[in-house]
Amino acid sequence: MPAKSRFTRLDAFTKTVEDARIRTTSGGIVTIASLLIVFYLVWGEWTDYRRIVVHPELIVDKGRGERMEIHLNISFPRIPCELLTLDVMDVSGEQQTGVKHGIQKVQLASPSQGGQPIEVRALDLHGDEQASHLDPNYCGECYGPPAPATATKPGCCQTCEEVREAYASVSWAFGKGEGVVQCEREHYSERLEAQRDQGCRIEGGFRVNKVVGNFHIAPGRSFSNGMMHVHDLNNYLDPSQGAHTFTHTIHHLRFGPQLPDDLTKRIGGKTMGWTNHHLNPLDDTNQVTDDAAFNYMYFLKVVSTSYYPLGWKSKGFSSGPGDSSDLVSIGQHGLGQDGSLETHQYSVTSHKRSLKGGSDSQEGHKERLHAVGGIPGVFFSYDISPMKVINREERTKTLTGFLTGVCAVVGGTLTVAAAIDRGVYEGATRIKKLHQR
Predict the structure, then answer these.
(1) Phi/psi at 265 (5° precision)
(2) What are 355-362's contacts with CB under 8 Å, separation 24+?
(3) Is 353 exposed, middle or buried (0-12, 13-18, 19+ CB in 10 A)?
(4) What's the CA gap between 148 and 155, in Å, rounded?
(5) Burial class for 152, CB neighbours closer than 10 Å (0-12, 13-18, 19+)
(6) How far apart are CA 314 and CA 323, in angstroms?
(7) CA 132, CA 154: separation in Å to the nearest integer?
(8) Which pLDDT tens digit goes with each residue over 301-320?
(9) Closest to 117 (Cα-Cα) out of 191, 195, 192, 200
(10) Quick one: how far is CA 82 from the chain centroid?
(11) How confident is the model over 30-76, as pLDDT tens digits?
(12) Could you please report the per-residue DSSP string of 2-46?
C-alpha cells in the first residue's frame, strides 16, 4: 500500500474496494435515467441563463432643455390640403405656424371616388410659378400690407403666395384672391375650386421643445391678432366651396422614434410587458361629423421612456438647445448607435364639441353644456410627465448563479438517484429472502 499522507485523515469521500461493489440491472437503469434528467435540467439552466428580460425602472426625469419629435399620419377625407394648416406652440413662447419642413400633404380623391391618393407632381396650389417670366423691373403690389420678409424681391409681392403672407402678417383675411393680379395670373381661385371635393392626408414629423405645448390642424392660414391665435376661415366656411368637415382618421401618432421590428419581436412575448403596440393609443382612431363648426381635442400625458440593450453603459447625453440633436435629421432623433433608444409613451383622453354650443342631451347628459365659439379643427394638447421609465435588458441569472444551479442539479439528481437505487436494491434483496424460506 502506498504511504499515507497527512491529508488521508481529512478524506471525507471514503472508498470501497472493487470486489465489495455490486452492480445490478436496476442500478444501470437508474443511472441512465438520472443522466438524462441531469442533461435536461442542465439544458434548462443554460436556457434560463441565456434568457434576456426587460426590467422596468421608474425614476425622476432630470433632463433639461431637451427636444422631442412628433410623428403623425392623419387623413381628412372631407377637406382639401389647401385649407389645412399645421401649427405648433408651447409654454416657452415658441411658435411654428404653417409647419412644412418634414411634413407632407397628400391629396386624396373624394370619398365617393374611393379616397385614394392622387398622384401629382406638386401638392400646393402655386406649383412652380415664381414669376420668373415677368419683367425684371416688375414689382407686384401687396394691396395694403407691407411685403413679407421672405419675398423674392424686397418690398414687392411677386406671387399670390407672397400676397397671402403679407395679408397674414397684418392679420387680414385673404379669401379667394379676387382682384389680386398675382392670384388671377396663377389661377388661384380655379385651383382652389378644383380641390373642393378632395381630401388630404398629413404625414411626417416635426421637432418641438420638451415642455407643455400643443399642435393643431385647423383650416386657413393662421396669424396672431393681439394675444390671440386665429385662422382665416373664409374659404372653409364658404358655402360655395362645399360641405367641409373635420371627419378624420388618425392612422398613427407617436412621440419619439419607432421601436424597431426586431426589438419588438424579441421583447414582445407574454412575459415582456413593453412593446410599441402599447405606446400609441390613438392609432387607428376614427372620428366622423357632419358639422363644419366642430372641434376635436385630445389631451395627452407624455412619459419619457428609454430602452437600454444588454451590456449598455452610460456614455452621457448632450442636452440644451445647442446640442447635436438639432443637427440630426427628422426620424433619427433618439436612436443611439449603441442600440439604446430614447422615446416616449403617452396616455390620452379626448373631448369633442360643436362650436355652436348646446348640450349632450342626445347622449343622456343634458347637464353637460358646451361653450359657444372657437376654431374648428383637431387639437392635440400634450403635457410632460416628471417621471421617466427605463427599460433595461438584463439576464435572469449571472454566471455564478448558473454554475451554482448546475452543481445543485447534478448533486441533487445523483443523491435522489442513489436513494432510489438503494431502495430498489434493498427491496429486491428482501423479496428474494422471503422466496427462499
Answers:
(1) -70, -35
(2) 355/293, 355/294, 355/295, 356/291, 356/293
(3) buried
(4) 8
(5) middle
(6) 18
(7) 15
(8) 999 988 888 877 765 444 44
(9) 200
(10) 28
(11) 888 889 999 999 999 998 888 888 788 888 988 878 889 999 999 99
(12) PPPPTTGGG-SS----GGG----HHHHHHHHHHHHHHHHHHHHHH
The overall pTM is greater than 0.85: no
Count of CB atoms situated within 10 Å of the CB of 165: 22
Calpha distance 226→213 (Å, rounded)? 20
Specify burial of residue 180 (Cβ count, 10 A radius: 0-12, 13-18, 19+). buried
Residue 201 CB contacts under 8 Å (≥ 6 apart), including other chains? 73, 74, 75, 76, 105, 106, 108, 117
Which DSSP symbol is given to 335? B
Widest distance between CA atoms in the chain = 133
The answer to whether 375 and 217 have CB atoms below 8 angstroms apart is no
Residue found under cell 383637431: 378
Mean pLDDT of 187-200: 80
C-alpha cell of 350?
A: 379626448
Three-state DSSP state, 181: helix
Amino acid letter at 413? Answer: T
Cβ-in-10-Å burial (0-12, 13-18, 19+) of 414 comes to middle
**Helix, strand, coil proportions of the chain in percent (round to 5)?**
30, 30, 40
Nearest to 307 by CA among 279, 341, 257, 344: 341
Cell of 147: 411685403
Confidence (pLDDT) at 195: 77
Rounded distance between C-alpha atoms, residue 416 and residue 155, angstroms: 96
* CB-based contacts of 295, cutoff 8 Å, min separation 6: 246, 352, 353, 354, 355, 374, 375, 376, 377, 379
Q: 213-219 and 199-209 as β-strands: parallel, antiparallel, unpaired?
A: unpaired
Phi then psi dihedrals of residue 301, to 5 deg: -110, 110
- CA-wise closest residue to 388 among 55, 68, 60, 54: 60
